[in-house]
Amino acid sequence: MKRRLAAAAILACLGLTVTACAGGLTSLDPKRNPLSKSGGLVVGTANFSENVILGHLYAGALRAKGITVTVKQNLGSREIIVPALKQGDIDVLPEYQGSLLQFLDKNARQSAAEDVQQALEKTVPQGVKVLPYAAAENKDVYVVTRETATRYGLKTLEDLRANAKDLVFGGPAEDKTRWVGLVGLKELYGAEFKDFKALDTGGPLTRGALRGGDIQVANLFSTDVTITNNNWVILEDPKKLVPAQHIVPLVNEAKANTTVTEALAALNSKLTTEELSKLDAKVDNDKEDPDRVAKAWLDQHGLGS
């Protein structure tokens, strides 16, 4: 639920320092969060457009309650942002239920939303609180062009067992080692692909590679309107490889007071999958700025300042 940016690129773009430990870069420098120490909140986001939109939605809803908020967007994948939240470098993070759970517990196989939520509440790191999830859901989906679906008779992920050897799979680099990715596709569906191309997280590189024929199976997101616009085919997932992926806020437990939790709950109650898809389209297709798109939506729904 994401692509690992090169450390140098993160530093150059954000002007941040990071601390290193076994396994690589894991957090932003905790000294770079003065707002958090003064009572304000820092909202962090992963490095793909929808998560950036969500970060600005969270920030706007919190500002409307009189909280000082800054947004640090495009920080990278979970390997960076989840430890950053745990260490207090950021205070709030928009996440996705199932992908987060499997990041925290590689053996987790819960699928239904309530089951995933209960497991998350027991699995999140100490000092981190998972809040109730939104109606909105954005799931990983495996997509082929209409031509590929017709040529190989592809309707479900089960159909890949006999055909994957002739197909190239494309998605974020993490797909190579994650359950919701090549690992689960092989173990659950017997799909072993001709090749894997590490691209971006459901973004223009992956969509362009699918459109151009460089890959035949793409990991995209269910809220991506370009799937419908291109008449692409989402392969059904009868064995439920992909768990529930409702949007869920993660918050520094020390900052999860009533004002914060109620502001995010009010946002969650109005954020549906359809609304999230519309917001994505404004940014990805219409090239509008995520912060302005978020502000307009909050004002429209009575949640802005």
UniProtKB/TrEMBL annotation:
Q: In the UniProt record, does the keyword Cell membrane occur? A: no
Name of the protein: Osmoprotectant transport system substrate-binding protein
GO CC aspect terms = ATP-binding cassette (ABC) transporter complex
Q: Has UniProt tagged this entry with the keyword Signal?
A: yes
InterPro entries with a match to the protein in the record: ABC_Gly_betaine_transp_sub-bd (IPR007210)
Q: Which PROSITE patterns match?
A: PROKAR_LIPOPROTEIN
Q: What is an example of a GO molecular function annotated in this UniProt entry?
A: transmembrane transporter activity
Give start and end of each ABC-type glycine betaine transport system substrate-binding domain: 41-300
Query: Which Gene3D superfamilies does this chain map to?
Result: Osmoprotection protein (prox), domain 2, Periplasmic binding protein-like II
Q: Which domain of life is it from?
A: Bacteria
**Known Pfam families for this protein?**
OpuAC
**Entry keywords, A to Z:** Signal
**First and last residue of the signal peptide:** 1-22
